[in-house]
Specification:
The complex is a heterodimer of chains A (163) and B (292). By secondary structure, chain A is of the alpha+beta class. Chain A folds into 2 domains: 77 residues, Ubiquitin-like (UB roll) (Roll); 71 residues, DNA polymerase, domain 1, CATH 1.10.150. Chain A has 5 helices and 5 strands, in the order ββαβββαααα. In chain A, strands 2-1-5-3-4 form a 5-stranded mixed beta sheet, sandwiched between helices. In chain A, a hairpin with a 2-residue loop joins strand 3 and strand 4. In chain A, helix 2 crosses helix 5. The longest helix of chain A is centred in the C-terminal third of the chain and has 18 residues. Chain A is globular, with a radius of gyration of 16 Å. Chain B is of the alpha+beta class and 292 residues long. Chain B folds into 3 domains: 47 residues, Uridine Diphospho-n-acetylenolpyruvylglucosamine Reductase, domain 2; 112 residues, Uridine Diphospho-n-acetylenolpyruvylglucosamine Reductase, domain 3 (2-Layer Sandwich); 111 residues, Enolase-like, domain 1 (2-Layer Sandwich), CATH 3.30.390.50. The longest helix of chain B is centred in the C-terminal third of the chain and has 25 residues. Chain B is globular, with a radius of gyration of 19 Å. The chains are: A alpha+beta (163), B alpha+beta (292).
Chain lengths: 163, 292
């Protein structure tokens, strides 16, 4: 079959991009290979592991279960947009650092994006709610306890910083 | 793990989408939330030559509560929108129990009710809910529209009675009746995994707390959602004693033919189906008598 090209325009972390892509290109591959934003990781490519989680207009989604062509016109947020331009970690990243919330780090971008959306909607979560929110992100180092601790600490830091 | 090539068309209207489907038939698939279709395309278990994206058809999304007797849910309504609509959950209480079991928050942000029912995965919760609630499916083609009862809609493994030129556009759910109680429970290996077995129960009582109607449907124990209401019919006209419910659980175990899978033997599935039948009926009865 001849390739099926589409022009798309979208924004990622506030930067506008235009590209011409094949319809079969997954959004996860588009971010990594076309925009060279390789912070979004690809684990299972069928929606089970959560490593590729990004925000689509602020909503957490699996970027391996969406076609890049479908993201036309949307505002995306990825792991690259969390720290400040000078490199200072945001409160969720800082909490992961302090609580040793990552070992190999492969699942971390997906976890940070999932929890960015979650903590915005649930500023004072219980431990159970944090575990439920994390249920769609697999950590094969199995460092879940430290991730849960980090997210409870991050929630506290975000509340303290809120105006 | 990449989809095979296809032609992508973003439908500009429902009519446009249906014309394309009529033209391409089984070669074309509708793309709604994509949470089942895209994985199967990534695995190349599905290789449609045309993908008709209906995500822009916002008229297909939404919850219509304008009629007292039923709630009509547009096929493009996402799980997260059902989860956050408290009026909907109050009128269709089985959803409040079942929605948290559907995969994970990221999936529920994209997946749609119409996509779920059209995919017809027998381990999925919503087909069983549709059978338990006696939902009616509104199906459209460019030639016209028709309705299909949930009991006729699910025809086999991943198979529905939607024709190659048709689309499921809306689902009508009868609202909860007075003195009715509902409950859904399932057992899965991990949060969000497919159910090894799940049971949806709806019970209606009269003023004397006697059962006047009971609906029972299971997921994960056959090639389609299983309507086990007949196994519970012995409760009708009784005050639903513990012994009577135990007898129903045994009936349910005899009425299903689970296949077993890598996580559970058929015997274990049959066992938990009975346990869940008892628990859901007991909780549904409590909710019916307390008016919850």
């Amino acid at each position: 079959m001849a390739s099926d090209r589409h022009d798309i325009a979208l924004s990622v972390n506030g930067t506008a991009y235009r590209r011409s892509i094949d319809s079969r290109m997954l959004l996860s591959d588009f971010l990594r290979h076309e925009l060279l934003l390789a912070g979004t990781h690809v684990g299972c490519e069928h929606g089970v592991c959560g490593a590729c989680t990004i925000l689509l207009d602020g909503v957490a989604i699996r970027s391996c279960l969406m076609l890049a062509v479908q993201a036309n016109g949307y505002e995306l947020s990825t792991i690259e947009g969390l720290a400040t331009k000078s490199g200072a970690l945001n409160p969720i990243q800082q909490a992961m650092h302090e609580r040793h919330g990552l070992q190999c780090g492969y699942c971390t971008p997906g976890i940070l994006m999932t929890m960015t959306a979650f903590l915005k909607e649930h500023p004072s979560p219980s431990e159970d709610e944090v575990r439920e929110a994390l249920s769609g992100n697999i950590c094969r180092c199995t460092g879940y306890q430290n991730i849960v601790d980090a997210m409870l600490a991050a929630a506290e830091a975000l509340r303290a910083a809120a105006p | 793990m990449k989809p095979a090539p296809f032609k992508y068309v973003a439908a500009s209207s429902l009519e446009h989408a249906l014309l394309l489907k009529a033209e391409h038939g089984d070669e074309a698939r509708f793309l709604a939330g994509g949470q089942s279709l895209i994985p199967t395309m990534n695995f190349r278990l599905a290789r449609p030559s045309v993908l008709i994206d209906i995500n822009g058809l916002t008229d297909l999304a939404g919850i219509d509560r304008s009629e007292a007797a039923e709630i009509r849910v547009g096929a493009l309504t996402r799980y997260c929108d059902l989860e956050r609509n408290y009026d909907f959950l109050k009128s269709c209480p089985l959803f409040g129990d079942a929605l948290p079991h559907i995969a994970h928050p990221q999936i529920r942000n994209r997946g749609t009710i119409g996509g779920n029912l059209s995919h017809a995965d027998p381990a999925s919760e919503l087909p069983a809910l549709a059978v338990a609630m006696e939902a009616r499916m509104r199906i459209k083609s460019s030639a016209g529209e028709r309705e299909s009862l949930a009991s006729e809609f699910f025809q086999g493994l991943l198979t529905t009675d939607i024709g190659s030129d048709e689309m499921l556009v809306e689902i009508a759910y009868p609202t909860s009746k007075p003195r009715s109680g509902a409950c859904f429970r399932e057992v899965a290996r991990r949060r969000g995994d497919f159910a090894l077995a799940g049971v949806a129960a709806v019970v209606t009582l009269d003023q004397q707390q006697r059962c006047t109607a009971v609906r029972l449907a299971l997921c994960g124990v056959g090639e389609t959602p299983v309507d086990a209401s007949e196994a519970a019919a012995s409760l009708i006209g009784t005050d639903c004693s513990d012994e009577a419910i135990d007898a129903v659980a045994v009936e349910v175990q005899g009425a299903i033919e689970p296949c077993g899978n890598v996580h559970a033997t058929a015997d274990y599935q049959r066992h938990i189906a009975g346990v869940l039948a008892k628990r859901t009926l007991t909780t549904a009865l409590q909710r019916a008598s307390h008016g919850v």
